[in-house]
Amino acid sequence: MSYALAAPLQAAVFARLQADGGLSALVGEHIYDALPTGTLPRLYVALGPETVRDASDGDGAAAWHVFTVSVVTETAGFHSAKTAAAAISDTLHGADLVLGRGRLVGLWFHKAKAARQSGGLRRIDLTFRARVEDGAAG
After folding, report:
1. Which tens digit of pLDDT belongs to each residue from 4-55?
2. Are the C-beta atoms of 107 and 95 separated by less than 8 Å?
């Protein structure tokens, strides 16, 4: 197994989200890898947890990455969060991302969960699956 592509995959996903004009029109620059200190904006996107499992074979090291991208809002209702979540899904599902190491075989939307949280927050967790192969391993 190789976990070596976790950082390059995360960097490519983050860059893709930041570069998407439709998502930027909805959330501005409020796309985070790590939440900033202080007051958060009313609507933001944050990269979340991931799990990785081995997918290596005779051709080399590979892995399945299952990761979460969250949309959080303090706005009443889910409309703004769902609109941002749709933009995220549109830009990531099937994306052909270039990684700094290895290669992305595929990236797919897996599932989503919308929920109310304490303090009047609404949160949508989008889960994606990515398969990566590491040509540098060996």
Report:
1. 999 999 999 999 999 999 999 999 999 999 998 999 999 999 999 999 999 9
2. yes
What string of DSSP letters covers 36-74?
PSSPPPSEEEEEEEEEEEE--BTTBEEEEEEEEEEEEE-
- CB-based contacts of 32, cutoff 8 Å, min separation 6: 44, 45, 46, 47
Q: Where are the domains of the chain?
A: 6-134
> pLDDT tens across 80-138, in order?
999 999 999 999 999 999 999 999 999 999 999 999 998 889 999 999 999 999 976 54
Q: 72-106: string of b/e by CB count within 10 Å (b at 16+)?
A: bbeeeebebbbbbbbbbeebbeebebebebbbbee
Among the residues of 1-138, which ranges form H helices?
6-19, 21-27, 79-92
In degrees and rounded to multiples of 5, residue 98 shows phi and psi of: -95, 125
What CATH architecture does domain 6-134 belong to? 2-Layer Sandwich (3.30)
